Amino acid sequence: MRIRFVADKNDKNACQALGVLEKSGQEVSVFEKSIQNIKLQPEAQEILVAVFTSPEPKLIKRGHASRTASHRLMEYSPEWASSCQMLIAVAQDFKDTNLNGMVKEWLKIVNNLENVELAKVAPWGPKPVSEKRFNLYCEWLEKRLGLSSESLNLNFTPRPSPNFTDGEVKIIKNALRVKKDKRLTYRIIKTAQSTPYPVGVESTILTGTRLIDLILEKRILIESDLQVERILNCLWRGLSGKSLQIIIPLCPAWTYDENGYNFCGLEENSKGICYEMMSPELNHFLSFLKELNLNPKLLIWVADIEWLDLEGGAYVAMQGSWSKEKFMSYVQKQCELVAQDLASRSISGEVKPLLKVFPEDEYLREQAAQEKLYLSQLKSSETKKHFSNTLKMEAVLYKKQCGVFVDPVNPHPKVKDALIKDMVSHLAPLALLTKLYANDNYLFFLQSGPFAQLYEKVPYVLWRVLRKGAF
Question: Do 292 and 312 meet the contact criterion of CB atoms below 8 Å apart?
């Protein structure tokens, strides 16, 4: 999908923003409004984004520099923008606005048109919960995108009644205020007010204070307000009686040295350095859950699927010396040792190679589907940027894996192919596991790093890698 940002040449602020977009590699067009009632028409497979200055105070809140793609922009937009699919109103005075940060938000919203479920959420945020704004949203979908609410099965869902009275909110706020984190206090109260799971004042205070402590310790990372909301709902759902399932991907027991993995083989009779690094952080997270009287189930899956990369020519130091049978037997032994370690600490969990969780033919079908999808997404600026940043952060690891220099901007074909395969080796299991646990209460326990972004649509927490080196 091609994205083009357009503005009137005489609109100084809009053109200033387009200049920032152009420097970041986006396609922009500036036109001179010399013809009365000019209208711009998008080409096939093109999203046309109109950027214009608006003096309307109802659109842009005080302290904000722009309003992106809102259905409420339509009645205030210029005539020339009437055929543009997306609209952005900018303030008359940018002052000290961080323009780079602002346009990044625009790009994120516009790119959401490719993957967001428009019946459940708008590209720029939650689906409207007031009837008037919901109708405006439907009008925007039909007028700008040619989509009817019927074709999307889009129905109005009114805002639910809040779970707490004003007096109860005050009690919760005063209790959480002790932790001195206004952002988290606000997010916890807002989530508690609307969660569909039964919560009381005491349980909200308990989960809220414990979660703030966990986040501020920075051993376990929760990356966004959305993930805070998802984790809270997992906890409250667990407290209401729905067992919590924790899903943990684990690397095979690769050999390593002081600089990280060297990919010379797998360690024999070993739980693996990845597990050794993760284990204390998992203990810490389980202790947090125990304080809330939650006793989760664990599924640790070891990535035996990395044999497919070895078979395809990756891990150059191992080529010719490792058969499939040998690789899989080492992974199986690793699973047994990890399971024994969990049992010795009275932790309930299953430890399996991924291809014992799903049949190999089922995995290979999903792998092919996810690779095709990812390659199509790799054309978008957001995915390209994540791909390049991942190579930059993991350059040492891919140099060892592929045996060639890593250029994040123009990677060697071997490096590019290896990273695509690694992306898919996260996306395919993620798709299969989310189907398997679709009706369950689950969250992922992931190693911190650039691959975590692939899990942005599911609940997850991150454990930090404390060792130096490429792991």
Answer: no
Q: What is the pLDDT at residue 238?
A: 96
Tell me: domain 244-463, CATH 1.10.20, correct?
Answer: no
Lowest-pLDDT choice from 7-21, 71-85, 340-354, 410-424:
71-85
Scan for tokens 């123009």, then name that residue.
Answer: 410
450 close to 408: Cβ distance less than 8 angstroms: no
CA distance linking residue 110 with residue 381, whole number of Å: 11
pTM of the model: 0.73
Residue type, position 164, single letter: F
**In the chain, what is the straight-line distance between the N-terminal and C-terminal CA atoms, in Å?**
35
Give residue-wise pLDDT tens across range 162-214.
Answer: 899 999 999 999 999 888 899 999 999 999 998 999 999 999 999 999 999 99
What order of strands is seen across the sheet that includes strand 460-463?
220-221, 460-463, 441-447, 244-250, 297-302, 349-353
List, in order, residues 6 or more apart from 150 with CB less than 8 Å away.
Answer: none
* Residue tagged 């809140």 (tokens): 61
The Cα 61–Cα 129 span in angstroms is 19
The span from the CA of 261 to the CA of 247, in Å, is: 23
